[in-house]
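Hi D.,

Good news: the full-assembly prediction came through. Inputs first.
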Amino acid sequence: MIAEEVSRVVEKHADRRGALISVLEEVQQKYGYLSPEALQAVAEKSRRSLVDVYSVATFYRAFTLTPRGKHHLCACVGTACHVRGAPNVVQELKTQLQVEPGETTPDREFTFETVNCLGACALGPMVTVDGRYNSNVSTAKVRRILDKARMGTQGEEPASDERNFPITVSCPKCHQSLMDASTPIDGHPSIHLETPMNGSRGWVRLSSLYGSHNCKSQAEIPLDSIAPLHCTHCSEELHGAGLCPECGSPMAVMLIEDAGILQLCTRRGCNGHALDLNEPEIAGRPSTRTAG
Ligand code: FES
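Then the structure:
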């Protein structure tokens, strides 16, 4: 059964560069972790040595060789979050989940981990659940975060008529505005970023209308390629905390002015994105949403 599924996944990614990582991501997504049988099947079907497959599976933090909980919960313990109260938040999570960082709850509901930075220091303490950000987390908020994850209500789809509204974003590293009024898209200032292109960096401008996928770029970005997004001011890559819920590719992250966090899939052609808002309402919309 595993061998058949792995064979299908290996075939699907046969023509792609870095196929092994994509194969392992998809197999892990299907089974929740990379079992010895799954790794053996990946090695056989992709005609690689088991040592090669194990070395990739153990090198990247995103892969796990032990079963994970249904929800992946990650608390930031970096300096900025630490001084804003992360140790108390971590203690509260440990108390409520009854596990230590790195462990999975006995009911397999949560795997709890800590990291040193989630790239949104100004909004700490940060906790992500399944790659979605929760900002300014206090001990009082911990119960609500866990309940929302258990009930599956932390990423509800908005009604289609609520999808389009303008947002203003800044870099989570240097906090400078990424908005460019000189090149509007959809009648609003565009989001000005950079991405590797033809051996150097080229510009990308995205629509700031949430729900619109219109964009322009200095040169054509091949369909299906990963285009990491960089700040035009500090040049830092805008690494997101999780993987795209649509295709499993890395996400890029930006701060929404005084309101929360926007994550976008970096794979050209995928429209996966997520919006996590601090406040109960922004422009009259619900507090958390995702859209494909
Ligand atoms: S230190 Fe916590 S997000 Fe950077």
